[in-house]
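Justification of resources, computational component.

The compute hours requested in this renewal are based largely on the per-chain cost of generating structure records like the one below. Each record pairs the submitted sequence with a full C-alpha cell output. That output is archived, and it is also reused by downstream analysis tasks.
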Amino acid sequence: MILKSKICGVSDSKTLSYIVNHENPPQFIGFIVNYPKSKRYVDSIKLKELINNDKKNCSYVAVLVDPNQNTLEKIKDLPFDYYQLYNCSVDKIRSIKRSYNKKVIVALTIENSEDVKNYKLYEEVSDIYLFDSKGYEKSMSFNHTLIENIQFNKDVMLAGNIQINDDLEKYKKIADIIDISGGLETSGLKDISKIEIFLNKIKNLNNET
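The structure output for this chain reads:
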C-alpha cells in the first residue's frame, strides 16, 4: 500500500511553490481558512492570491471549523478539492456537500476509544476520515494505536503531532494518509529543509514496498 501525505497549514507562496513543484509532492495541501487562533490562518483576501496557481497533481484542502454561510460563500469559487470539516453535524456536512459539490474530510478529534467510535456517524457524508488530537492548532498528540485494529470503509488520514523523525512505517500500518503540519516548522514557520526531508522519507518508504 502506498502511504499518501498531506502538508497542512501552508500560508506563504514560497513554501507552496516549493511543495507543488517538488518531484515527490504530497497528495494533499491544507490551508487554514476560518480559524484565526491558528498561527497558520490565512484570511480570505490573502488566500485567494495564495492559491491562484497551478497546483499540478496536488489536491487543495480548505480546513474549516464549523464554517458559517458567509465563509463558505467567500471560498466557493476557490480551487479547493476538499473541505476538511471540524465540529460539524452530519446534517450540516450533508448540506455543505450538496450546496458546494466538494469532497469532505470529516475531522474527528480523539482523546479515547469512545471518541474513535464517532466515525460511524459520518459514514454517509465523509469521503475521508481524519483522526486528529483535541489540540487543533497546538499540534498535540493522541494515542494513534486507538484506530489500528478497526476496519474502515474509507481512507483514513492521521494527524496529531506527527514529526519528521517518527517511524513512518508504523503509520503506514494504520492509515492511508498522514497529515503533518507543526512537524515541518521551525520557530512557527514552515521550514523548507524539513519539508524536503519529509517528502523524501515518504518516497523512500513507498519505494520499499
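The longest helix spans residues 192-207. The domain at 4-207 is CATH 3.20.20.70 (TIM Barrel).
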